[in-house]
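Weekly structure sync, notes
Attendees: PL (lead), two postdocs, one rotation student
Agenda item 3: pending single-chain targets
PL asked that the sequence for the first pending target be pasted directly into the notes so everyone works from the same version. It is reproduced below exactly as submitted, 369 residues in total.
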Amino acid sequence: MRLPMTEAVYRARVASGALQRDAAQEGVARRLEGLQDEIAHWKPGAWFGARPAPRGLYIWGAVGRGKSMLMDLFFEGAPIAKKKRVHFHEFMLARHAFLRQARERDTREDLIAGAAKQVAEEARLICFDELQVTDIADAMLVGRLFERLWALDVVIVATSNRAPEDLYKNGLNRQLFLPFIALLKEKVDVVELAAARDYRLEGLRAAPVYYTPLGPAADASMDAAWARLTHGAAPMPVTLEVQGRKLFVGRQAAGVARLTFAELCEKPLGAADYLELAERFHTILLEGVPRLRPDMREEAARFRTLIDALYEAKAKLVMSADAPPEALYATGDQSFEFERTASRLMEMRSDAYLALPRRDAAWKRGVVE
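Predicted structure, written out during the meeting:
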């Protein structure tokens, strides 16, 4: 069965009104469809009549231009069985974990070769969302790992907010990272998505981002916000690794996660979990926040920590709650501390906050560019 091709699906979504036509997006969709066609005629591992692996793509541009949306369309239609779409940070965490758990008698190069082989056995096409390098550990690993992946004929497609030349900019020992940038340009085609409009910001500004009170109207508004921000993409589950624990997100698409108060604040989660969410997703839809009673001390503390994490990362929040921010926790032994949370919630609804760029991983990891 023929899978849907990127440019054709893009045009169909424009025709349906789910997307607005953008010449820059359409051009990138055409490039991605060309890669799909190359993959369709490629036989990885074939001994006779084998073609070289297709060149991948590195798609970069400012936030909100549709990079993740286009890569999702490409991934869905990529005509290859072994394929994987993963957030770059999540991928690198898993590789570091593999290296830590491997046997001490192996050299580091042997371990990297083993890690690359493991990846290649799982996928011959890997789509990385939000490729960024701000951590020296990633910087020292990514070049050798990707070199091995390309040697194993793994096709790589990536999105990034940065041009290749700006990866790990001003990072510690950056001169050691420069060969990876040269190799990246050699192995993939670099394409800038120069769309003029920030569709993510327009989607957030198109309607309020705080709905109260809880009820059918708020539920319908959250459904509309989800459809608007994900451009109609089908929600998919993902499991994040957080300090050796697993954090399950049941609904996510196009860099947006949809979660409930019960999932985030009625379970034993902490700052590390919320920081991971803030780094992994540019927007969080948080549903069903109740009025916090004095006996909900632990839930209130987790909620405060969650809002602090999202605010510090400048992640965006769309929320349904049973009361306005200043009335969510009117009484209780944390009501004084909650005043800052209420203030941040009100600020996070403003146009000025919505227009702020999300902070990259450096702020969390202690590496300042």
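Discussion points:
- The longest helix spans residues 23-40.
- The first strand starts at residue 56 and ends at 60.
Action: rotation student to compare against the earlier draft before next sync.
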